[in-house]
Specification:
The complex is a heterodimer of chains A (175) and B (298). Chain A has seven helices and no strands. Chain A has 175 residues and is an all-alpha fold. The longest helix of chain A has 26 residues. Chain B is built from twelve helices and no strands. Chain B is globular, with a radius of gyration of 19 Å. The chains are: A mainly alpha (175), B mainly alpha (298).
Chain lengths: 175, 298
């Protein structure tokens, strides 16, 4: 019982941290702070997975977000006219609509969490190594088509983006 | 107890790496050189640049040190001497090393200086070059061990060490490790000649001391990872397991330092081209070869 309550404390702590960093994303005008706040929000989510004894998912989340959010940071700095946020730029727009959408989204999520019949909830998580194996079997079995489709789509987008960024023959001639 | 012993050995290792680096830089072997350098740094005023991003500026050196220590936490020095033997150990090493990038970006941005900023972004490009060459060789190592537990990875090398079983993977991982620790010729983010210290440029005093310590621990951690993944970890005759680990880790760190010191610094574009056009195909070939070999001769 004591262990469960400690686990709950950790889950709550990291959950609140994730929300806190999430709020900070929009409270700052610096693109770098915004990107890294999002990174630490996601890292806190990874820590929540760890607290819920989903070791592989937690470590994966913590790993992936570090590089992804850092790469996003350079794009945010490149595309914003005031990346340092020194001009006291307004970071939000369409306020009423976004507040409404946010509240509706939060209520819907809470509703799904509360009113869904989740079935039997396992009382103890399987061992970490067993979870990794089960995840691998899942990815190579039932979910293979979904993940392969997503993977190939992302690869196509990457190749297309690179092709668009390369100078064309015409531009090379003009240069 | 284990944790204390491992942290102390890491610090001792980092000290020896600093001695070696000073020896290479000055041509004189002085065992006390890093101690004096540390005393000098701690005694010096720690200047904060004008209008820094204070949170990033202060966090960066500490985050670098923490990332290196966390990666070391799952690497065993002997069958029982490991801080946390996680079921996802090999993946965890990657996860911790990813925060080296975050630390350097923070240092680059937080200093509010052009050279530091360029250094930070340079490292982002460097990560895009080397990251696959860390992940894919580790995948091949885990394939042979059929486990992500670092102790299982060492045990899987009982018959033949991975350096012989998957030599391509070893070479790729070794070179990529040098890039992770931004050792020459991959020292693009600090680039003493052209960036005047880059991400380190604005750091002085105790903050610089922590930054340098973090980097030295990172070198030792990466050498430990190379030892665990490719050199049979603690295995060896006569001497106790921890001694073999220590010898191998120090030898790998020395090789990392010596390997690049005589080479000119690589250009960012060339690094990316080499890694993506040669490194990643080789890593894929390595995965394929290891996959076939695991079926024939595990």
């Amino acid at each position: 019982m004591a262990l469960i309550s400690l686990q709950t404390v950790f889950i709550a702590f990291f959950g609140i941290a994730a929300i806190g960093f999430g709020i900070w994303v929009f409270r700052t005008s610096s693109m770098m702070r915004s990107a890294l706040a999002l990174l630490f929000s996601q890292t806190a989510l990874g820590a929540m997975f760890l607290a819920m004894q989903a070791e592989f998912l937690g470590v994966l989340q913590i790993m992936m977000m570090a590089t992804e959010m850092s790469i996003m940071a350079i794009f945010m700095v490149m595309f914003m006219m005031d990346p340092g946020g020194l001009g006291a730029m307004e970071m939000s727009h369409q306020k009423r609509l976004s507040i409404l959408a946010g509240v509706a989204g939060a209520l819907a999520t809470a509703g799904i969490a509360l009113f869904t019949q989740w079935g039997v909830v396992v009382t103890s998580a399987p061992a970490a190594a067993e979870q990794t194996r089960a995840l691998g079997t899942e990815l190579l079995g039932r979910s293979m088509l979904i993940f392969e489709t997503a993977g190939v789509t992302i690869l196509t987008a990457m190749i297309a983006a690179t092709a668009v960024a390369l100078p064309t023959l015409q531009r090379k001639r003009n240069a | 107890m284990n944790t204390l012993v491992i942290v102390l050995s890491l610090l001792a290792g980092a000290y020896l790496v600093a001695v070696l680096e000073a020896w290479l830089a000055t041509g004189r072997f002085r065992l006390a050189a890093p101690a004096w350098a540390a005393v000098a740094l701690l005694g010096r005023e720690s200047i904060v640049p004008r209008t820094p991003d204070r949170i990033f500026f202060e966090t960066a050196p500490v985050l670098l040190l923490i990332a290196a220590l966390l990666a070391a936490a799952v690497l065993p020095l002997s069958p029982s001497m490991v801080m946390a033997n996680l079921a996802t150990g090999a993946l965890f090493v990657n996860a911790a090393l990813a925060y080296v990038l975050v630390a350097l970006l923070m240092a680059g941005w937080g200093s509010d200086s052009a050279y530091a900023l360029v250094g930070g972004w340079r490292f982002l490009g460097q990560v895009i070059a080397y990251s696959m060459l860390i992940v894919m060789p580790i995948t091949a190592v885990a394939m042979r061990a059929e486990s992500l537990l670092t102790t299982d990875i060492v045990s899987s090398q009982e018959a033949v060490w991975n350096i012989l079983y998957q030599p391509i993977g070893f070479v790729l991982f070794f070179v990529a490790s040098m890039a992770v620790a931004f050792l020459p010729p991959f020292d693009l983010p600090i680039a003493v000649g052209d960036l005047a210290g880059g991400v380190e440029a604005e750091y002085t005093g105790v903050r610089l001391a922590v930054f340098r310590l973090g980097r030295m621990v990172l070198v030792i951690t990466l050498a430990a990872a190379t030892t665990v993944f490719y050199l049979g970890g603690w295995m060896g005759p006569v001497l106790p397991p921890w001694a073999w680990s220590a010898i191998k880790i120090l030898a790998v760190s020395a090789a990392m330092l010596l390997g690049g010191y005589t080479l000119p610094r690589i250009r960012e574009a060339h690094l990316l081209a080499w890694c993506w056009k040669l490194g990643i195909p080789l890593a894929l070939i390595n995965l394929f070869i290891v996959g076939v070999m695991v079926l024939i001769w595990p």
